[in-house]
């Protein structure tokens, strides 16, 4: 796939995936179109060699894999479906001072200031009781800009440009309407009715998140960049999804996109949970065969990397400061916050060099903290050789992030051609 088609598809995927639920649904549809057969965890599996399969958990994590007849030394690609956002509280309605507001809770380590004065919509999963007294679940996406978080005028905050702080409880409630008769349940039922779901006896629970309605787009004098919400880490999800859809069924490859990475991965559908291990043990029921597969495979953990910020270069180690559109980043940390080691780095470098693809190294400043990824978590749980890589990004964890138009396509080419 050429770079132009690749990036157009990326923008479409970003716009269609406002939550992990939507991202997982979109990837599942892509797998179906590429000939992958769906598996259900609670059912018995009858795997056939030479076929391709996918399975989801919690509607927010997905695994896709080939099942070759001969080789079993897998190239695994790991990413995560979640991004920092504002999640709706269970009892969200606040009516005061002439407006109706929504109570929200920050999810993950998000930059709060960029959420002010943006056009916001709402999406996620809703559970309800239908006319047959059965619990059903469905995804909704309001799409329309229904709320905003207005900034406090500078006349009322003389320190705004000096030391602006944000209180997570009182300062970030999105303003919805001046209609004091607004009822949340009726609003949700209205959204369900637009999906032709009319038999709602009772609304139960929901997992809904606000998102910026501005579409992903090319930015820059020569369209140098791609700007979008949720680049961390839908960018890697798209690359991993497209990579496994581009290889033949006889190449041992697996892709996993897990939820809840931004809050530590400790959940049934997170990388700290059992999803991947359960799947692999069903693929390889013989323990010796399973261990042989683990010790001959490699996991490529793909999560965005910090590009050097041109206005804050002192925040980076100048010898390990990746640039946008200068190649995929290998992430290294002596304290094992990243799982890369000399063995896995060498294998990745070799595969990239065969394609003439550029690589960069990232090491955080020794006097600054370092984020982590699913890489060390999965390596610890499975005992699989792992490398952490990423695509250079600016504005990470903001409501709108920035990446290069070249780097994701470069990683895609490396993954498709990777020789294990």
From TrEMBL:
Keywords: Aminopeptidase, Hydrolase, Metal-binding, Metalloprotease, Protease, Zinc
Cross-referenced CDD domains: M18_DAP
The protein's Enzyme Commission number: 3.4.11.-
Keyword set includes Cell wall biogenesis/degradation: no
Cellular component annotations (GO), alphabetically ordered: cytoplasm
One Pfam short name: Peptidase_M18
Record field: transmembrane: none
Family: Belongs to the peptidase M18 family.
Record-linked PANTHER family: ASPARTYL AMINOPEPTIDASE
Entry-linked NCBIfam families: PRK02813.1
Name of the molecule in the record: M18 family aminopeptidase
Record organism: Sulfurimonas aquatica
């Amino acid at each position: 796939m050429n770079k132009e088609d690749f990036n157009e598809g990326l923008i479409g995927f970003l716009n269609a995936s406002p939550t992990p639920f939507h991202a997982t649904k979109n990837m599942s549809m892509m797998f179906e179109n590429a000939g992958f057969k769906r598996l259900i965890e609670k059912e018995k599996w009858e795997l056939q060699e030479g076929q391709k399969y996918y399975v989801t958990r919690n509607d927010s994590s997905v695994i896709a894999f080939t099942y070759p007849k001969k080789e079993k030394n897998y190239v695994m690609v790991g990413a995560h479906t979640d991004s920092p956002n504002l999640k709706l509280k269970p009892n969200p309605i606040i009516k005061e001072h002439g407006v109706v507001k929504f109570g929200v809770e920050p999810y993950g380590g998000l930059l709060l200031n960029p959420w002010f004065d943006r056009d916001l919509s709402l999406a996620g999963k809703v559970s309800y009781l239908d006319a047959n007294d059965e619990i059903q679940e469905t995804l909704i996406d309001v799409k329309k800009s229904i709320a905003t978080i207005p900034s406090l005028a500078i006349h009322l905050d003389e320190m705004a440009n000096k030391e602006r702080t944000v209180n997570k409880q009182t300062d970030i409630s999105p303003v919805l309407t001046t209609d004091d008769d607004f009822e949340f349940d009726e609003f949700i039922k209205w959204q369900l009715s637009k999906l032709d779901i009319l038999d709602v006896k009772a609304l139960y629970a929901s997992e809904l998140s606000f998102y910026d309605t501005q579409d992903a787009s090319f930015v820059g004098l020569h369209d140098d960049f791609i700007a979008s919400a949720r680049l961390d880490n839908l960018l890697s999800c798209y690359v991993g999804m497209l990579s496994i859809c581009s290889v033949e069924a006889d190449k041992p490859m697996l892709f996993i996109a897990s939820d809840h990475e931004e809050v530590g991965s400790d959940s049934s559908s997170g990388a700290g949970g059992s999803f991947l291990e359960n799947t692999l043990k069903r693929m390889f029921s013989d323990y010796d065969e399973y261990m042989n597969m683990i010790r001959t495979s490699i996991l490529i953990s793909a999560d965005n990397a910090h590009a050097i910020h041109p206005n804050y270069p002192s925040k980076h180690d100048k010898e390990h400061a990746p640039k946008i559109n200068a190649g995929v980043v290998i992430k290294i940390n002596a304290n094992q916050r990243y799982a890369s080691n000399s063995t896995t780095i060498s294998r990745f470098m070799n595969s990239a060099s065969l394609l003439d693809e550029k690589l960069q190294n990232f090491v955080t400043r020794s006097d600054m903290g370092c984020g982590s990824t699913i890489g060390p978590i999965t390596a610890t749980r499975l005992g699989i050789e792992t490398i952490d890589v990423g695509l250079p990004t600016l504005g990470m964890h903001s409501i709108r992030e920035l990446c290069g138009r070249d780097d994701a396509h470069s990683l895609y080419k490396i993954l498709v051609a990777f020789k294990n």
